[in-house]
Amino acid sequence: MTITPGVDAPTWPPEFAERYRAAGYWRGQTFGDMLRERAAAHPDRTALVDPAPERRTWTYRELDERADRLAAGFLARGIRKGDRVVVQLPNTGEFVEVVFALFRIGALPVYALPAHRETEIAHFCSFAEAVAYVVPDRHAGYDHRELAALMRERTPSLRHVFVAGDPGEHTALSEVPCEPSGPFDGPEPHELAFLQLSGGTTGLNKLIPRTHDDYMYSLRSSNEICGVDDGTRFLVVLPAAHNFPMSSPGWLGVLYAGGTVVLCPRPDPATAFPLVEGERITMTGLVPPLALLWTDAAAATAHDLSSLELVLVGGAKFSESAARRLEPALGCRLMQVFGMAEGLVNYTRLDDDTETVVTTQGRPISPDDEIRVVDDQDDDVPEGEFGHLLTRGPYTIRGYWRAPGHNRRSFTEDGFYRTGDIVRRLPSGHLVVEGRAKDQINRGGEKIAPEEVENIILAHPAVHDVSVVAVPDEYLGERSLAYVILREGAEPLKPVAVKRFVRERGIAAYKVPDLVEFVDAFPHTGVGKISKKHLRSAAEQS
Ligand SMILES: O=C(O)c1cccc(O)c1O
């Protein structure tokens, strides 16, 4: 169960770590201590607002105290430093309390999304050898307690299920807190803070080990770039466990700055606009499909959105035409952000001209973010030409959690992360994302590994072979299409039966193929392997 540094989670070579400390990037503070410091400096300021169903607020002092008591309760139940805890909570105050309680004792949250189901959660629990799983009772019509019971049966390491709300057969989260018996033996700043999820390209999600030092640096710099300060009122519209709304600059960045975080239960304008007005929201982050929806809804809304100063858009490519419409419609500044949970984050800047803001995906946070744009042989391409984006820097991981084989493919020998994105770099340093080399579908910001979905469909008795590819979609950017070859002599299937089969296997709904087509054969490459590129262009033409 214990973590061996450099083995379970590859880390920076000592000369890099020294350089990042000397440059002042890594400042030696943990998230637990950060909150403690803020609570001492401005105890009565509002840290957190959870507006639904009844408005609840937390001052910095209250959040700090509640995190302490919950941390003490977790310890009393045997959760220890280095233990992994799968946290699957919607945008509620409990999410923030749980995460800070775990930070304080050095247990590592594994950030599941509310949309995840049996397939994903079973993987996180077993691969991370989680000791606990934290869930809501019901969310969006789904009973998480039943899934939790199944996970307890199937995962030997899983000793606890904590439920926010009615616990059923499990333990109520509200029963956990107790009085701390003394200071916590917390983590060191260079140690892991949590495991974030990768978008995944090869089947199941990889886990991304982030340290207190490296993540705190990305927040602090994001705050400077985005102009976050103690007057910022940030609306968390996307699922709070996503890296973007957590750290770019996100709810953690805003708490770092002493601002106020408001948790939005659903991302639609009908839910969010009254909150923007009522809570005087100044900043938020959206994925492109939501940005479009908000842009269109703003024209007709009776709600006063004039408090909005900045909307960040990222997670998938934002079309230039949509980007041009956003600022006039919402009456605020647009900032594009191109980031990844593995590290590197790029922003357009507040003083960039409009053309740069609408046509690029920004430039890196740090002067020490090393960027290479290379061809298929890893040779640098001339400035301004397309190539694979490789990166290395003070907040980009050196390897995934317990994945040595995968790490040899995803990182160069000298530690550059192969992002899988195809970019072009402008003389200003801004990147333009042109496409993707990795086998992944980006469905409006939700990343899908085709292989994971293919493996599920292959289990259908009537299916001989399957290939899942991206097809362009005006609203989401991309949707998923499953090309299915049926077994000889099999009863014909309807597309809806394939979709139902995938859904019933227990997988996040966004991974269920949007389209299913039955074909006799896939286009093949010379070596007889399915050519995803070929399939993608066939899909684009159909
Ligand atoms: O993962 C992402 O897509 C992402 C987008 C914007 C900003 C981020 O930090 C991200 O991780």
UniProtKB/TrEMBL annotation:
Gene3D superfamilies: 3.30.300.30, 3.40.50.980, Luciferase, Domain 3. PANTHER family: LONG-CHAIN-FATTY-ACID--COA LIGASE, SURFACTIN SYNTHASE SUBUNIT 1. It holds the Pfam family AMP-binding. The lineage of its organism: Bacteria, Bacillati, Actinomycetota, Actinomycetes, Kitasatosporales. NCBIfam families: DHB_AMP_lig. Keywords: Ligase. Residues 35-401 form the AMP-dependent synthetase/ligase domain. SUPFAM superfamilies: Acetyl-CoA synthetase-like. The keyword Repressor does not apply. This is (2,3-dihydroxybenzoyl)adenylate synthase. Residues 452-529 form the AMP-binding enzyme C-terminal domain. InterPro entries: AMP-bd_C (IPR025110), AMP-bd_C_sf (IPR045851), AMP-dep_synth/lig_dom (IPR000873), ATP-dep_AMP-bd_enzyme (IPR050237), DHB_AMP_lig (IPR011963). The keyword Ligase applies.
